[in-house]
Structure formats: structure tokens, C-alpha cells
Amino acid sequence: MRFSAVGVSSTLLFASAVTAFRDSSPLLVWSSEPNYGLDEARAELTSGVIGADVMFESLETIGCDWDMVVVAHMDDLHQAQIKKISLPLDSSKADLHVPYLIRPTREGLDTSVQSWAEKCGAKLVDDLANAEKGQRTLVYLNVEHGKDVVLPSDLPARHLVVLTGTRDLSKNDAKRQGVVEEPFESVKVPEVVSSLPSVAPESEASTAAKNKTDPDAPRHNTYLTTPLITALLITFLIFVPVIAISVSALASVQVPPRMLEISKALAVDKTRKDQ
């Protein structure tokens, strides 16, 4: 039973980890010029797994030292698909790459992009054709899933390109409840106790009768009761040592020689008087 429980727990943990990575999307950022905000963000990242909300809220910390930012969004984009689609820039040369944003939502990304544009005073558009030259612009593109990400070659000299994806968590949670949780609910733990033969406890009467009828049955000694054992312990551990110490102390008492001489002299005087 214990090993079965450990196996089920390990399976659940593995399934949870797989589900967490399945509900993830990558984040890649390229900068045409050195960017202090990107360098600081890359230095603070200690893992390729991070919460999407935290990362989306940190986009505006990249700063406003740019003329155009292109945020390319793709639904259900996964890290494994990066090599299968054509990107405008090499993914290995990204200034910031987070392979696994856990549970990214479209609402969270929309809010972060809008906040970034407002902070930098940029115009927010959804198409490159609507970008105006000479004005700071944030282009928020929606790329069809599985399609190549294509950008024009005449981007401003100071530009950033952000590629990320989001997940429909409500749809994924519904699938997980219908497909993953049902098998675990249908697993029945075998009742080991019910398969064992039941043994009724023997009554005192049956035990006494067995002891009387069976001559080979062991006879229990009822003389060493608790009070008797307590009395013996007190006697041998307290009284006997006290008596032994007292006798030893009395035996070690010696009469001074001067007292012996005086007692002898008194004895001689008494003898003379008696004569």
C-alpha cells in the first residue's frame, strides 16, 4: 500500500509538472542597440521558468530608449515550436530569452503592452502600416499560430522586437478536468484488510477453560504482583544500603588511648576500695 501511494503521488507530481510546461510560452527580446534594462533583466534571471504575470509586468522596465517596439504575439506558442517557424532574427542571438512563461494570458499581455506604451508616450498600433515615421510607436501584432513572423527591413535604427505567446487557460483547464482527473478518480485502491481472514479475540472464559483442560498450557506466575515488586525494590535499594552504611560507620568508631587509660585507672581504684 505504501509503495502504491508513493507511485500515485509521483505520477500526480509528474502530471502536474507536464501540465505546467504545457501551459507555457516563450519570451524572446531582441534589441538593435545595447539596452541597460535588458542587461539587468538577463542578470536577474536565475531560471528559464518564471511566472508570466511577473514577466509581462516587467516589460516596461526595459525603458523607453527606442523609436519603435514590435510586440509579435502568437496564440498557443510553445518553446518547442520556435525552431519550426521562421523568425525575423536568430533566436540564439536574443538579448533576453525566457523559454517557459508559466500560464501566460492574453489579458495580462494586453495590459502590460498598453502600460508600456503609455509610460513611454508611444503610439499604440496593431499594424506596421499604421506606424508613423518620426513618432515613437509600439506595434502590437497578432501572428497566426504556426505562421512565420515577418518584419520589414526598414525598421528604425533604435528598435526592439518582442516575440511571445499566450494560452487560453479556461480551455486547457476544461480539458485537464475531463481527461486527466477522470482516470485518477476511477482508480480504486485495493482493500487489503478485507482480504485477510478475520480473527475474533479470545474471551477470558475461553482462555481459562483452555488452561484448565490443557495440561501443557503455560502456568502464569501470579505471586510477583506490583506491590510485592515495589516492596522488594525499596528494601534492596534503600533499606539494605542504609543499614550497611550504618554498621560500617559504627564499626569504624575507635576509643582514644587516653580514655582507655582513665578507664583502667578507675577500675583499679574501685578494686582497691572493694578490698
TrEMBL record:
The chain crosses the membrane at residues 228-253. It comes from the Eukaryota. Keywords: Membrane, Signal, Transmembrane, Transmembrane helix. The keyword Signal applies. Residues 197-219 are annotated as: Disordered. Residues 1-20 form the signal peptide. This is Protein BIG1. It comes from Cutaneotrichosporon cavernicola.
